[in-house]
């Protein structure tokens, strides 16, 4: 436990002490091409800190879900590649699940779940075009609901966003 605490404290101090230039853009909007397909809006609230809002939908044969997520991301420069940053952070989600089974109509139901996330990724903005790309991994713990709960380590996406001027 002491080793984990020391590691997390060291990581926090490293993040706070990182010397990074101002971000290359203020806000961007676009798509998260992942699980699920989502709309994304990202805006910087400080030199290193950004908030990303995500609205996603995923549908299958018998069930679908809609999620609304928000993340705080702390960006740090990668000095060897101009305009490339890495980020860490966390967030939360609300999921609305709908299960509709045509063969067994008495088994239809809907439920609400909540997610707690970590996030780590890379963020790149182009110099000559208003385009931002990011790729991330989002380990998630889903709480509540009848359909899905527990840890999910398969979430993440490639995001393609238009930089707003």
Structure in words:
By secondary structure, this protein is mostly beta strands. The chain has a single domain (2-164), classed as Beta Barrel (Porin), CATH 2.40.160.20. The chain is 10% helix and 59% strand. The chain contains one helix and ten strands; from the N terminus they run H-E-E-E-E-E-E-E-E-E-E. The chain has an eight-stranded antiparallel barrel. The longest helix is centred in the first third of the chain and has 16 residues, at 2-17.
**CATH class placement:** Mainly Beta
- CATH-defined fold name: Porin
The CATH architecture would be Beta Barrel
Count of distinct strands = 10
For the sheet with most strands, the description reads: 8 strands, antiparallel, barrel
Give the proportion of residues in helices.
under 10%
Radius of gyration: 18 Å
Indicate the topology.
Elements: H1 2-17, E1 27-34, E2 37-44, E3 49-59, E4 63-77, E5 84-99, E6 109-125, E7 131-137, E8 140-143, E9 150-152, E10 156-164
Antiparallel strand pairs: 1-2, 1-10, 2-3, 3-4, 4-5, 5-6, 6-7, 6-8, 7-10, 8-9
């Amino acid at each position: 436990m002491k080793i984990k605490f020391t590691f997390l404290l060291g990581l926090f101090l490293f993040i706070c002490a990182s010397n990074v230039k101002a971000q290359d853009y203020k806000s961007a909007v676009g798509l998260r091409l992942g699980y699920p397909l989502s709309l994304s809006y990202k805006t910087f609230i400080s030199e290193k800190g950004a908030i990303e809002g995500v609205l996603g939908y995923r549908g299958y044969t018998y069930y679908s879900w809609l999620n609304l997520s928000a993340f705080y991301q702390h960006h740090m420069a990668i000095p060897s590649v101009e305009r490339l940053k890495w980020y860490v952070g966390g967030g939360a989600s609300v999921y609305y699940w709908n299960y509709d089974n045509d063969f067994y109509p008495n088994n239809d139901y809907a439920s609400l779940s909540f997610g707690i996330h970590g996030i780590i990724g890379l963020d790149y903005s182009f110099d000559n075009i208003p385009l931002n790309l990011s790729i991330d991994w989002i380990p998630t713990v889903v709480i509540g609901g009848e359909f899905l709960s527990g840890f999910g380590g398969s979430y993440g996406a490639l995001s393609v966003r238009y930089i707003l001027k």
